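To the wet lab folks,

You asked to see what we're planning to order before we commit. Fair enough. Below is the target structure as tokens, and below that is the sequence we designed to fit it. If anything looks off to you, flag it before the synthesis order goes out.
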């Protein structure tokens, strides 16, 4: 039988070196922008929440940050989520998407949601979006990306199916 070596980790123990950082802590220069495009199914893994946390971190570094939700990603901005009533958290973390988007917007981030995905795919109305989320024309998804290119902005694009 294989012998297990080592002591059991206890709460508060560090199991990796979380202080050693390889790269400089880059902050935005005046006027720098970032666009994060998400085509992500909410709650089908952690990528959507991780991307929102990344958006918030980029925003806190001083970038003028825009999050573009399209395809299934628009569902992340649903203001009608909750159980048994709208806004009620059915279990810890249930409202994480809404809470993180609200934090991001409260700190100056902009959130855009594609109207085509909202209406044609998910039956969402613009009034179903979280307060502060702006609905955009489906052709604006590409033009937003082209705008980012012209501006020399940081662009991150994530897809999950």
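Sequence we intend to order:
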């Amino acid at each position: 039988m294989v012998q297990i070596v080592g002591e059991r980790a206890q709460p508060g123990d560090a199991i990796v070196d979380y202080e050693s950082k390889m790269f400089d802590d880059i902050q935005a220069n005046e006027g720098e922008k970032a666009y994060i495009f998400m085509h992500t199914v909410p709650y089908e893994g952690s990528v959507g929440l991780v991307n929102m946390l990344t958006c918030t971190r980029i925003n806190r570094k001083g970038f003028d940050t825009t999050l573009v939700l399209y395809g299934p990603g628009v569902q992340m901005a649903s203001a009608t989520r909750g159980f048994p009533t709208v806004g009620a958290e059915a279990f810890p973390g249930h409202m994480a998407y809404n809470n993180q988007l609200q934090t991001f917007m409260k700190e100056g981030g902009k959130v855009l949601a594609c109207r085509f995905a909202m209406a044609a795919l998910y039956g969402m109305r613009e009034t179903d979006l979280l307060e502060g989320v702006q609905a955009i024309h489906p052709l604006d998804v590409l033009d937003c990306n082209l705008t980012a290119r012209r501006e020399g902005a940081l662009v991150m694009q994530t897809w999950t199916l």
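Structural context that might help your review: The first strand starts at residue 33 and ends at 39. The CA atoms of residues 34 and 131 lie 22 Å apart.

Thanks,
Computational group
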